[in-house]
Amino acid sequence: MMLSFFDQFMSPTYMGIPLIALAITLPWILYPTPTSRWINNRLLTLQGWFINRLSQQIFLPINQGGHKWAVLLTSLMIFLITLNMLGLLPYTFTPTTQLSLNMAFAVPLWLATVIIGMRNQPTAALGHLLPEGTPTPLIPVLIIIETISLFIRPLALGVRLTANLTAGHLLIQLIATAAFVLLPMMPTVAILTATVLFLLTLLEVAVAMIQAYVFVLLLSLYLQENV
Predict the structure, then answer these.
(1) How is the chain split into domains, by residue range?
(2) Average pLDDT over residues 165-186
(3) What pTM was computed for the model?
């Protein structure tokens, strides 16, 4: 029974061929494409308003040099939101529950922010490793600690997204299993359990959106330090 709970996180295969590439590529066809008309339909207008609001919230504290990342980070956030939301549907696979995929998103983007900082302002980038006014005996220790914290950032990004989505999916499956088991024996308790399951599902919808936003927001903060 315990193994079956974790089977949902295994990458699906068909005739030995992993289908995670299909799970990542397929959501792109769900996005509405812009038209050549002067007036867009309601869906495109809502999509444009949503993207503009998110971009303003993320890039408001960043200077003009960091606005070049707007398209990349906004696209990444919408893509993560789509993957997380589709993973809440029954009999679907959530690619963002795989730590390897999240690290593949986090490490290159974090490394790009570090490289930009070292290229544009190396003194300020290296200055983050040693806070101003540090006592002389603590300088070597603080440099080591700040360096470790710098390299832990991409790991924290990937693990945070993976852990939150995995925990939510496990809770949904556990409560759903309890509701089915209790239904023949205690219908009243099963109905209450199903109500809790519905509320938890609404919470997971919010978590799916918030975690994608937090992932991109932290990347933008790392970018802000280096531009």
Answers:
(1) 1-225
(2) 87
(3) 0.82
